tRNA threonylcarbamoyladenosine biosynthesis protein TsaE
Amino acid sequence: MSDDLRLRGTRYLPDAEATADLGRALARIVRRGDVIVMTGDLGAGKTTTTRALGEALGVRGDVTSPTFVIAREHPSLGEGPALVHVDAYRLGGFGELDDLDLDTSLDDAVTVIEWGAGMAEALSDDRLHLTLTGLDDRTATIETAGERWADIDLASELGLD
């Protein structure tokens, strides 16, 4: 698996609504099989972004932090992909992430892995990495790996600088 990341841009997120807007923008470009690796400060908006992504995808259930259950699957209520939401914060490495059997749903869902940097890279060569920094004045940094994202104009699709 390749770990070469390409910086695609940043986006200023002045409040929670702007953070949710990023999740809704992601929903317009993701498809089944996509892996999104989220990193960032505690409280920086990883779950807020994922919640808005799930709502925009039209998945079942409230998207909440899966900290205590590690992973939640939200089936699609329509024709779109399901959402698999993982919190890897308490996992000890790729072996424990692999034990979750995510590969059984990778092809059929959009998989978001919070705190996945350093272990989720082995799941797919094609990944979107989202790093959220700051608490009140957030900044989102988008990096990608793989051919899936090479021809997508993420600057205009996601409002990146």
In short: The helical segments are 16-29, 46-57, 94-98, 103-106, 154-158. The mean pLDDT is 85.
